[in-house]
Amino acid sequence: MNKKIFAQLLAHSQNDLDKITQPYIQETFGVVVKRCETLEEYTQVIDDACLHRYFSKYWQNDMKKWKYSGVALIDEVNSLKPRAVLDVGCGYNEFKGKIENIIGIDPYNDRADLEVCTMDYKTEQKFDVILCLGSVNFGSRDKIIAEVGRCVNLLAEGGTMFFRVNPGIQHDRPEAKWIEFFSWNVPFIIELAEIFNLQVLDIRDDTNSRKYFVYRKKS
Ligand SMILES: C[S@@+](CC[C@H](N)C(=O)[O-])C[C@H]1O[C@@H](n2cnc3c(N)ncnc32)[C@H](O)[C@@H]1O
User: Fold this and answer.
1) Per-residue pLDDT averaged across 136-159, rounded?
2) Beta-carbon neighbour count of residue 123 at 10 Å?
3) Ligand 1 center to residue 207 CA distance, Å?
């Protein structure tokens, strides 16, 4: 759950849902959402609407700015000769046509092959490579663990996952104000490897204080 949004709703309403009006939501968060029955449900739908608004209308990327986790990945991934690659939270799907056999999923960007979030992506297919570049980074520790677990599940045995993660740095634009950036750090990267029986192949500092790291799923 997005703690920033929940705390704001709680402070404003003091648990009186009638105080959470549509004008209040629009003025505070800049989004329109359906009527909800609980504060938790409001938090969920407002969080989703804020992510949608920001990533579909305002966020822009420049793949060239990343030292390790941008265009450098094209040759790196193709050299693995993958039969199938999944780009989780692909944004503008910039690897399409450059990395072979790639499918991009993203719930908030219509350039994705499938507009779906990590947890709702259903397939029987297993992927030799999965890219999680800035996309497993929103919300609570539990949500991050669940999303990484889902990716591990989609990865073939011996497959490789490439990550770029944000250590919790807020994006500058005002439209990103209510987005909760999870604070990734190296001990957590190692803890996840232990939880999901992954081998850590690499961890490096990328541009803008992001971390780049690579996991392999043990056979
Ligand atoms: C910082 S951008 C990175 C986009 C792209 N991977 C790149 O490196 O340019 C984060 C992306 O994650 C997507 N995203 C947010 N929540 C997601 C979720 N639950 N499942 C999949 N993608 C998500 C956003 O829509 C956005 O496109």
Assistant:
1) 97
2) 13
3) 18
